Amino acid sequence: MPLFHGVAHSRTDFWLSSDPRAKNPLAAPRVQEAFWLNVYGPQMVEELGRERVLSTPCAHIEELPHGAVLMLTRPTPVDFASEEARLAQARALVHLRPELSLDSTLAALRQRSLEFTPVPIHFDPDVADILLKKIHFEGVAGGMRKHVEHFNQYHPPPVSEWIPASQAPAPDVDNVPAAIEQYDGLYAEQLMALFHEKVPEVMDVSQEALPLLDWHLWNSRWGKDITHEQREILVPALGGWLGRYLVNWLGGRWVPRRKLEEAAVIVGDKAWLPFLRARHALNGLDAPLDYSCTQFFRAAQRSAHPQAH
Q: What is the pTM of this model?
């Protein structure tokens, strides 16, 4: 088949470019950018002017069969974002499109190269695991640099779902052991059943599962896109699963209440309210981050073992 148009370049840098096919693969090709390797089909060459195309300043240019032209801006693609590569890309593009300014074209390319420059990470330690998952998921093309700069300034609200243990109301349920079994067994098992495929770590009840579940809830928009009925099922499941961590890892003791949001786990001199935390964590798009299970557990852990922190 006759050549029409083609490029070879960093995929991420291509997505960051202004080339219309970065947003729509079916868009009609045009010379919007100059990449590492560029192939212009005979129609594009004639529109640009064959003489102009063949005189483009570049590392290599070659006429192909049927009238197409192949052009390399640099000998290899490995330094596509270097100053030398950006200058070569800018010179080639401005030659092919003389209406463009070399200075403004080069400035735009340099700005794009900044996306590949690492930014020091200083995330809040209580939620750093969740935020790292976010930036790795989005990648450079998803604005990693912008996310890191934003998350370096982010701190979740202080954990408020607790009361002094001396003020915790006594159990008001008819059968305390049965209520505890419902929290620690039925509800926690429901959480595992709901998420064991997407977050297999929830089955292990390991501390590593906390930020992984928080990330999944946040990234999958569980705090915003679920129905009222779904939320009323998930709040007890998440609260029971979270309370199990306070019991198993911190030696906590359940204090059941008829109203779930009042049910507490006593750890040291504080009564932690996992069901209330679960409701807050499912009450908005960013709620799984602002009211994460991870931060809640770590706050309880610090309170239980202050000398270790």
A: 0.73
